[in-house]
Fold this protein.
Amino acid sequence: MSHLERETLREESERMAGKRFLAGGLLALLCGLCTLAFGASAIGGGGAVASSLLTVLIIGGVPTAAGVTLFCIGLGIYREGRRRPYPKGVFD
């Protein structure tokens, strides 16, 4: 694999990592804030607090967890792409 091919592959990897990083961060942030707001509303509203909180956690918690997962995957891909290869001759 030539140097140009390695650089192109690394740039594509960083671009894909950035997309996952951004999408996951936005998903976690927006869904997390909405879940927090509705959870606080369920607690402050009285009534059936346990069932309201369960509904909020299922409907809002799952997308928030998916966003955090995408964020972590993107971060891992970015870090993996930034690692420098071993110097020539080390594992040859």
User: Anything to note?
Assistant: The two ends are 15 Å apart (CA to CA). The longest helix spans residues 3-45. Residues 35 and 73 are 22 Å apart (CA to CA).
